[in-house]
Every structure is written in C-alpha cells, then in structure tokens.
Amino acid sequence: xxxxxxxxxxxxxxxxxxxxxxxxxxxxxxxxxxxxxxxxxxxxxxxxxxxxxxxxxxxxxxxxxxxxxxxxxxxxxxxxxxxxxxxxxxxxxxxxxxxxxxxxxxxxxxxxxxxxxxxxxxxxxxxxxxxxxxxxxxxxxxxxxxxxxxxxxxxxxxxxxxxxxxxxxxxxxxxxxxxxxxxxxxxxxxxxxxxxxxxxxxxxxxxxxxxxxxxxxxxxxxxxxxxxxxxxxxxxxxxxxxxxxxxxxxxxxxxxxxxxxxxxxxxxxxxxxxxxxxxxxxxxxxxxxxxxxxxxxxxxxxxxxxxxxxxxxxxxxxxxxxxxxxxxxxxxxxxxxxxxxxxxxxxxxxxxxxxxxxxxxxxxxxxxxxxxxxxxxxxxxxxxxxxxxxxxxxxxxxxxxxxxxxxxxxxxxxxxxxxxxxxxxxxxxxxxxxxxxxxxxxxxxxxxxxxxxxxxxxxxxxxxxxxxxxxxxxxxxxxxxxxxxxxxxxxx
Amino acid sequence: xxxxxxxxxxxxxxxxxxxxxxxxxxxxxxxxxxxxxxxxxxxxxxxxxxxxxxxxxxxxxxxxxxxxxxxxxxxxxxxxxxxxxxxxxxxxxxxxxxxxxxxxxxxxxxxxxxxxxxxxxxxxxxxxxxxxxxxxxxxxxxxxxxxxxxxxxxxxxxxxxxxxxxxxxxxxxxxxxxxxxxxxxxxxxxxxxxxxxxxxxxxxxxxxxxxxxxxxxxxxxxxxxxxxxxxxxxxxxxxxxxxxxxxxxxxxxxxxxxxxxxxxxxxxxxxxxxxxxxxxxxxxxxxxxxxxxxxxxxxxxxxxxxxxxxxxxxxxxxxxxxxxxxxxxxxxxxxxxxxxxxxxxxxxxxxxxxxxxxxxxxxxxxxxxxxxxxxxxxxxxxxxxxxxxxxxxxxxxxxxxxxxxxxxxxxxxxxxxxxxxxxxxxxxxxxxxxxxxxxxxxxxxxxxxxxxxxxxxxxxxxxxxxxxxxxxxxxxxxxxxxxxxxxxxxxxxxx
Lengths: 492, 495
Description:
The complex is a heterodimer. By secondary structure, chain A is mainly alpha-helical. Chain A has helices spanning 5-11, 17-22, 28-52, 83-100, 109-128, 132-141, 143-153, 158-188, 193-197, 203-220, 229-236, 239-264, 266-292, 297-316, 321-352, 363-366, 368-382, 388-403, 405-430, 447-465, 468-491, and strands at 60-68, 73-79. In chain A, helix 8 runs antiparallel to helix 10 (203-220). By secondary structure, chain B is mainly α. Chain B has a three-stranded mixed beta sheet with strand order 1-2-3. The chains are: A mainly alpha, B mainly alpha. At the A-B interface, helix 6, helix 7 and helix 8 of A face helix 16, helix 17 and helix 19 of B.
C-alpha cells in the first residue's frame, strides 16, 4: 500500500462521485457529510506522506506503470520539496471549502461537490505527475471542473468570466502541447521528466520551447500583462472556487516554472530573465495600486494576488537559494492567507450578500471574533513578522537583493503598498461607527466557521514562528534547482 | 503477400460475405416493405428493424473474425487486407449505431417506410466496397452506391422543404463530385493505361506528361474533398446536415466521411510516390484551410446541427493533418496513418453520440435543434446534458477523452514529420473550437430551464449514448490497444 500512496491520494476524492450520484436530490445534508468525509481521506494520507517525506531533493514515493504503447508515455508519479507542500495544501483547502459552503447552494449542491472533488484530483495530479504527458493531461483536465464551478455557481457575470478563464488558459496550454510534442521528437523520445532533465538542447531551440512553456505558466500565475482573466474569475467564482483558484490553481503556474520551464531550458531562462524580473516588479506595483481603488473586497484581494504572485516570480528568477526558497514558501503562504481571506469574505457575503466596502463599517463591534480573525489573516497577507507572510517575503527580497538590487528596491515599495491596501480596507470595513442599520444585527462566526479558519490560523503562526519543519523538507530541492539553472544556464 | 491469379470463388465469397449479406438483406427488406402495410406499430416494421440489426451484427462479427485471421489477399479489383477490414469495422459500427438512433427517431418524424432500412444497408455495403476497392473503378462504384442511397435518405422527411433541399443539394453537389472523380479516373487511365491501384503503385511515369498526371490527381483529389467536406469544397455540408433527418446526418458525419477518407488513404498509398505531384504542399494548404474555415464559421452558428456540421468540417481538417504528415515522411509511416484511422474511429463515435443526444432532445415534440432549446437541460435531464457535455469536450480535445488522445496522436505524427507550422495552426484551431463547443454547454448548465416535458428515453437511444460515452471515456484513458490495432492495419497492405 505504501508504494501506491500517491495514487490513493490522487484518486480518493473521486470516491465521492458514487454516493453523490446515488443520493436523492433532497438529501443534500448527507451529500455534504459524505463528501466531507471522503475529502478527509486525501488530507490524512497526504499529511502522513508529508511526515514520511525526507526531503532528499530527489523524487520520492515514485510510482511507474506503462500507459501508452507506441509512445513512451508512462503513468509516473512522485513528489519533491516543491510539490509535497502544495499537495498537502490542496488536500487541506478542499475540506475547508466544503465546510465553508455548508449552507450555500441549496438545490444544486450535488454538482458543486462533484466538480469540487474532480477539481481536487486534477489539481493534485498536476503536482504529482513526473511524466510530461501525464502532467499535461491533468493540467488541461482540471480546467473543466473549474469552468463549471465558476459558470454554474458564480456571480452575475459568471458566464463571461468562465469562458474567459477557459479560453485564456487553453490558448497558453495548447501552445505548450505543441512544445511538449516538439521536445519529444526533437530530443528525448521520452516524456519522462528525469530523461528530459538530462538533455542539452541547443540555445535557439530552448528559446522557442521556453517561450511556449512560459506563456502557459505566465497566464496561470498570472504575470502582469496576462492577468486580466484573474479579477473576473475571482470575483465571479463562488467562495470555494476563489479559494482553490487563489490557493492552488495559481500555484500551478509558479510550480510549472520551477518544475518544467526553468530546469528544462536553463539557457533560455537566463536570456528571458530580465523580462521576467521587470514583469514581476510591474505586477507587484501595479497589482497593489489597482487593488487600492477597488470598491469590492473580493476584487481587492484578487489584485493583491497579482502582486503576491509577482513576488513569487521575482524570487524564482533571482536564482539564489534564498530567493527560490522564499518563492516556494510564499507559494504556500499565499495559498494559506489568501485562501483564508477569500473564506472570510465568503462568510460575510453569506450574511449580507454584498462585498462592497462602502456597505460596511464598524463591523468589529458587531462581529468581534470575525474581526480578530480577519485582522490576523490580513497581517499575514501583508507580511508582518511572526506570521508566515513575513518569512516568505523576507527571503525573496533577501535573495533577490543579492543579484538584482534595483528590482528588489522597487519591489520593496510593493510591500508598503500592499500593507496600505489591506489595512485601509480593514479600517473601512471594521472600524469606526456602525453606519448601516443592516450591519447592526450581524451574527458573529459560528462554531463551524471558526473550525474552517482554525487550521489556517494555526498554520499562519506555525510557519511564521518556526518555518523549519517546512524548509528542511524543501531545502535540498531548492539547492538542486538553483544549481541546475545557474550551472547549465551559464556553461554553454 | 500472396496474389491469386485464378479466382478462387469460395475464398472470395467467404471474404465478401459481410458485404454480400448486407446487399442481400437490403433486397429482402425492399421486398418485405413493398408487400406490407407501413405503420409505426406494424409487425413488418419491427421485423425489418430486427433483420437490419441482425445482418449488421453478423457482418460485424464476421469482419472481426476476418480481421483477426488477417488475410492479405488481392483479387485485383477487390482487396482484403487488415486496413479494409478496419474500415469495415468502423463503418459497420457506425451503421449499427445509426440503426439504433433511427428506430426511435423515425416514428417521431412520421417516417414509416421500410425502405429506409434497406437504403441504410445499401449505403453501408457501398462504403464497405470502397474500403475493399483495389481499383479506381471499384472505389467509384462503391462511392456511387453509398451516395445514391444517402441522397434518398437525406430527403426522407416527407413534406419538409428543408429535407428536400438537403437531398437535392446533396444530389447535385455529389454528382459534381462524382463527375470530377470519373474525369480523374479517365485521365489517370489515359496517362497510365490502367485503373488498378496495384499497377498504379508500381508505375514509373515518363517525365514527359506532368500536366496530365497533375490534372488526373487534382481531379481525383477534388472529388474526394467534396466527399470529406474539405474547404473549399464544403459548402454543401451545413445545409445537408441541417435538413436531413438527424439519424441520417449522424450516418453522413461518420460512415460517409470515413469512406471518403478510405478513398483518400487508398489514393495516397497508390499515388503518393509520384514525384510530379506536390502532395504535401497541397494537403498542407487543404488541411490548414479546412480547420480554420470550419472552426471560424462554426462560431457563428445558432443551430446545433449546423454547428456540428462545421465542426465535422474542422475535424476533416484535423485528419488531413495526419495524412499530410504521412506523406511528408515519404515512407507513409504506419504510425501516422494509424493515428488517422484511430482519429476517424474516435470522431465517428463522438459525433454519433452528440447526434444521439440531439435526437433525444428533439423528441420533446417541436423542432428542438436550436441552441436556445438546450437552456437548462442540466436541471431537466442531467444525464443527457452530461453526455452531451462529454461529447463536446471530446470534440474540443479535452483530456481525458478520446478526442484529446486522437488529436495527440495526429499532432505527434505531424510534429515527427516536421510540420511545425501546421501543428501550431492546428492547436490554435483547437482553442477557437473550444469557444463554440462551450456554447451548448453554457446553455445547458448555466441558463434557466425552460418549461417542457421530455418523454422518457427509449432503450435503444440510451444504449447508443451509453456505448458512445463509455468508448469516449475509456479510450481517453486507455487508448493503447485500439491504437495498436489501427497501426497494425497498415502493416501488411495489398492492392
């Protein structure tokens, strides 16, 4: 059983499909309970896996089975320091989403849960796949459930947002498919990542292939000029969709850069480096500035995501161990804190059915518990010391400063802007007198909602105070990555 | 490769049995329906349906046996190799599924004629004749048998102008195509002195008459392109697809298209070596045009049958990518042609599945093949909506469906042949196609439901949808076996 643990984690969410299909339409509560229980299986298994994970820098828990004949395509799974934490994060967020949406969507819960579980499998598959073809299958397949989640359970402009999301990401990934095929025939005759890592491609070829891969990932991240799908998708998606979108889906982009685009084409990565650094910095500053003027809390958080992911990209392209470690860590942190923010926004939306900042004010006196949690998460998001955000951002800035001080200086202003954005929003929503009549009777968080937030808050402080447990497992992978990229990138 | 000079009638009859069975049963059914009262409930209709289904099933079984035995025999005019049997299998399966669709669909459209089934059998036998054609004349003969039967089938909705229009348009355009084909055959005969594919394959042409050769091949190609609805010879297909009875449309989109590709594959196998013909350039342009025009025009469609017609055009373009790649490699690699065959099989099932759902929705009474008629179907009938969504995602090429795998094999072959530009055009086209395939999905899942009653589905229709659904998903995850079968088909070819 131990050797097939990843497969179990990957496909256990699909076990919920059968009970969901069988239960009659009126039994919505049972559907939620069953799905919640099923979603705990991958969580428990992945935590167990995390505890067994040694962080050797190699792929651990590998599984191989022949898949396609005629082409060398295998079912090949494995995790290393980059993917292991993301796997756990995915498994953690899904049950929280189910719990958060406990009272929502009555009448159409079945589809929501169905697509949520399919999405979970798709997302985790992206992080586990070590065969380029298998990776692509998960990468594309996961679009479908996300598309349905946005389009079926989203806000008023959901259809527009869903189609935009789908077409935008497809355009990028189909070019990546062409590049993957080229890679197979031109070079390796294999889709196995380990074989592909050993290639020494000519520089010109690398440029084209890197461009195709990086476009797909840059759209997903999203890097500055490709970010326009994100605010629409976030605002229109249901809370659960937003949480997974911000928490996991965007990380597929940065993960793709770390796993595929950079190690496969290190020379091209070096030549594209200046462009990526500039785009990342623009993303940081632009994201923060645009976030500042948003009247809608959710849209505001969405734009801060653009800024945060800019930091992650900046860290990756610093090519220093600190920077890359910071980036990998910040990927997780952003998943936790932005995921938590979207959950919190969803909770208040459920009560008031609006996300306009101007509709609120003085909420802290009505919902003290909610206000405390919101503030904690906000502080984590802006990177206050002793929270997880600080560790990640600090490492990124430290690592990048060594190689690119000017970019770092500009990005540093983004930290300040980010703080301004979030704290100003918190002030307008929570403090001051209660101006609106409707807000005076808002109920504070229920036990269920506290349970949703608790794991995330614990993680915020745990990673903030003692990030060692995470960093030890990622260390060797990070060093290996930096070695690869800087060594291969410069020798030829 | 064994060549029989003196005819062995017993062997020939054995090998031809499936085709002969269909022809014979077609004649029997014509007689039965001529001498019986035609009404929906009459016993004769049921008998005819059972006979048709039985003969198709028996033919399918024997063809499979023959495929396994794998004879590679050539009787010059008729050839029996694995390729032809593979085509037979696809054609028979398509015909069988069409029959399942028709059983339910015809009464709802007020069609009670037994001749429908006879014509279906004749058309299938004709397409099978194409698959076995070892001579240009036989290819033409098969095509005519199939086409004439389908011309009539297209106009089977009596009293409905659109159906008449479809039949007439199909007939006129099809006759033109046949004319081109015959003219091409005549030219080919004029240059080479033979119409036998095996003779053509081994011919070395004197460089003296390049224009005649060019003309011959061009005319042949134009004739075939009409049949597979490649741009710019596609204009007939949307009107015909829309106007014909939906079950016939499904048959046209699957079997007739596959037969067209059977001719094309035989042609390039026989003539692909002729250096005077710029095969790759021509097919490159054809496939790029077909994909792009098909997909772009499909965006504007509001009728689902028309949309599927344009999508069918675009899919012809995809298959042409594979054929271009095979020609590029000169050796006519079996892997790439295998990919084309796999794709044709995959496409047939996806599209029959999609039309099956269209028929199921159409059963609610009034004409319901506008996109707006699909609003809120997911609430009304989750199974149908889910099935159609899977078929559309498969047509779009989303993993894990067979459409994705088929496209992967095709594009991989093209990439291997070095057709980078064509692959990029093809993948961008896939993205365009996503836009219009999402249209019905948006309507089904995200729009409000309408007020109507959907009658319960019949078992035959359900079986068809289930079968297509199963194959689309199963082959999307485990395609190896069928792909290897498809490749195997090209291993030992005879003419």
